[in-house]
Amino acid sequence: MMAATQLALLFSAIEFALVGAILALSTYVTLWAGLLSFATVSFAATGAFTATHLMSEAGFGLWAALAAGGLGGGVLAAAAGLLLIRLDSHWLALATVALILVTRVVVVNLGDLTGGSEGRIVPVKVELWQLVLVLGLVCLFLARLARSRFGTAAVATREDPTAAATMGVPVRRVQTAAFAISGVIGGIGGVLQAGLLRYIDPDSFYIDLAVTVIACVVLGGAYHWFGSVIGAIVFTGLPVYVNQFIGQGQSIINGVLLLVIMIWVPGGLIDPLRWRRLRERRAAASPAGAAREVAEVRS
Q1: Which of 13, 104, 144, 202 is the most exposed place for a label (fewest CB within 10 A)?
Q2: CA atoms of 166 and 172, how far apart (whole Å)
Q3: Does 131 score more than 90 pLDDT?
Q4: What pLDDT sits at residue 222?
Q5: What digits encode the pLDDT tens for the residues 199-237?
């Protein structure tokens, strides 16, 4: 019985880690284009409550609900992006926090659609294989996107928007597109979160979730999409599992991991720049690398 309970908790931790990874990838897309945004939580709430209403009232299945939730999150994100990307970085971050507060007020007051402050029961349960499939598709999409012209433009925009604009990169368009993509992924993540919790209310998508998602991205590694996945596993799944052995384990583990990574791995767990420097050092330390350095000095 004890083994069965621990196995169930392990699967629960894996499920929360997978949903956390999808939400973290939503935030990663905006950081990819140089925008610090907490708005993933608003996109997730929009997707979750839209999908829950359609599943309850219109008989939508999970896949149709995912499409509707992604569409709802994408529409909100595109509209918010057009208004907010004109702001400077810190003002943009504050504006997206305000968007979370506004979203909560809207959810509370649209009781017929959202259940108001009492929330709603989610009629469809999400299975583990469905979470794995959706996360895999999102990762595949982002991997392909990174090799596209958009990926190159997003990196240029993040590193230096002024220089990117000088080279002909449509910075505003790239950032708006990043917001919209983030909204679609966030809306899908919200639907999956709702199906995992089986009950949602205004507190299911609030500022504490936004902070957790940002931590997953930044501390997992903000310069590669895989960092968000690893960050979600470490900062969402692991604490949930450890919580069964240690009271308040989630808070303790998160705090310790934050300190360790900030001190010892400031670039995040997945840092392509650090890997590149390590490869260069190893190449320079090899006999061939030393010979090249000698040849360069002589020339």
Answers
A1: 144
A2: 13
A3: yes
A4: 76
A5: 999 999 988 888 888 888 888 887 888 888 888 888 887
Whether 128 contacts 16, CB under 8 Å: no
Instruction: Pull the structure tokens for residue 15.
Output: 């499920």
Contact between 27 and 214 under an 8 Å Cβ cutoff? The reply is yes
Q: Which long-range contacts (C-beta less than 8 Å, at least 24 apart) are formed by 50-54? A: 50/187, 51/190, 51/191, 51/194, 52/120, 52/122, 52/123, 52/194, 52/200, 53/113, 53/114, 53/120
Q: Which long-range contacts (CB under 8 A, 24 or more apart) does 171-175 make?
A: 172/85, 174/33, 174/150, 175/33, 175/34, 175/35, 175/81, 175/85
pTM of the entire predicted model: 0.85
CB neighbour list of residue 24: distance below 8 Å, 6 or more residues apart: 213, 216, 217, 220, 228, 229, 231, 232
The full length of the chain comes to 299
